[in-house]
Amino acid sequence: MGIIQHAQCDILEVSAERNTVLHVAAEQGHDKLIRELYLRFKEQVLLSRQNSALDTPLHCTARRGHVRAITVLIQLAQDCGESILGCKNEAGDTALHLAARHGHAVAVKVLVSAAAEPTAEVNNAGMSLLYLAWRTYWPPDTAELRDDDGATFVHAAAREKQFKVVSLAIKSHTLRGLLDAQDRHGNTPLHLAVATGAPGVAEALLRKGKVRADVLNNDGHTAFDLAGGTTSFFTMVKLVVILVAFGAQLGPRRHDRLTPWCDRSTVENIHKTSDSLAVVAVLVATAAFTAGFNMPGGYRDTGEASLAGKAAFEDFVFLDAMAVATSVTAAILFVYGKASRSGGGSWKSFAWALQCMWVSLLSLLLAFHAALDSVVTSTTVHYGFLVVYVCMSLLLYRIQTWIGTLSSSPRRCTILRFLWQRCHSNGRHDGIFKRLYPLVGASVFHFFVFTIPSSIAFFCLARTIEIKPADWGLGTSSPAPAPSPL
User: Fold this and answer.
1) pLDDT tens profile 229-253
2) Which domains does the chain have, with CATH numbers?
3) Residue 67 to residue 56: CA distance in whole angstroms
4) Which positions carry the signal peptide feature in this UniProt record (predicted)?
5) How far does CA 64 lie from the centroid of its chain?
6) Tell me: the pLDDT tens digits for 303-332?
7) What is the pTM of this model?
8) Cα-based angle 303, 306, 311 (whole degrees, multiple of 5)
9) What number of CA atoms fall less than 13 Å from residue 10's CA on the CB side?
10) What is the pLDDT of residues 155-205, one digit of tens each?
């Protein structure tokens, strides 16, 4: 068997991942070997050499948190004039990103101290270098650090929607001064929270941080002026509700140039969804209409319903009629909304159609329960509707969380504060608000209206589901029957 001879190993590549010897030494934390390799192969420019993942030796040692190796690499790079602190790997991470992500606080301190001006760049995942450094390292040592845009870690946390980090800064008395700090563009953390669509962060800054909402940035905009830049309808509504609730004002501008907020994608989605929901509304109306002529219990010879006069049957008739009326109304509103040319008109018709649709579905469900209750006495029916009750409760909670009424932002107290501000606002400010955001007030109204029929339906369903202890196998405490007389 012949001997296979390989070429002489190259100092620049010693592994399949294109790692050099310096990469391996840095990953193992051999600071003395790093210095020796650099001195022996100085002309090879090993310090900034990247492997297949674009990692430099500094990336490798920062990932492991070898402080001495990091210090040696930084010193050698400074001596020869190489720039390695800002080098990014394939994921867009610098060495500081990796040290912060892996929780190496001492390594982060060394890297932050070596950087004259921490960069404002983010990695491919959108994580700011300054925010990651602060998250790993204790705030007093990095509170005064600013990136290339003059932003503090609070700016970075607000921009990246890091609610917990902003909350920690709010609770710290030593960091209170950073809450209203402006970067080189004049933006405060509140500006960035609103611009990036972070209602939770904005509410925390206003409610707990007591930040100023009237600060103008270099473009002459307050935080309120940036609320219209978000593309999500529900996010825009949340932000406007929060800002109005805490008395935020719009920046100075000409009133004749005010344009109402409008998202074309939202209008298009409404038109697309209306087609499907209109079909569903017609199906619900058909089912309810058919049930009205197929009465539970059948008919007498006189043509009257056999169960006429029974309470459960009367409930069925009322609820079935309610389902027919509301489903037909919903179908009409869906068609009218789609035919409407204005975005506001189509949205309002769509919102009312959804309300009617929800009422029709609840009415049809309760009508079905009343019909079964009037003709069936088995407890199995109650078990089935108990499962339906739980599932509907979870569905309602999920819907309300999605539209924002039960989510962490805005809180119910903030919504009530918004309504109070609207009732007591001056005519000029209220007119500007209605012109810019005509759908916000209607949205809050529909959020509250949505819960009314749901609460009524759940209350009625809970009252009708009566499961006795004996049905669960728990037994009863009723006395034993008396013996029959001889």
Assistant:
1) 876 788 888 899 999 899 888 877 7
2) 12-127 (1.25.40.20), 264-295+308-466 (no CATH)
3) 16
4) none
5) 33
6) 777 787 788 788 888 889 999 999 999 999
7) 0.65
8) 130
9) 10
10) 988 988 888 888 888 988 878 888 999 999 999 999 999 999 999 999 999
The two structure tokens encoding residue 258 = 């005010």
- For tokens 């012949």, name the residue: 2
Residue type, 406: L
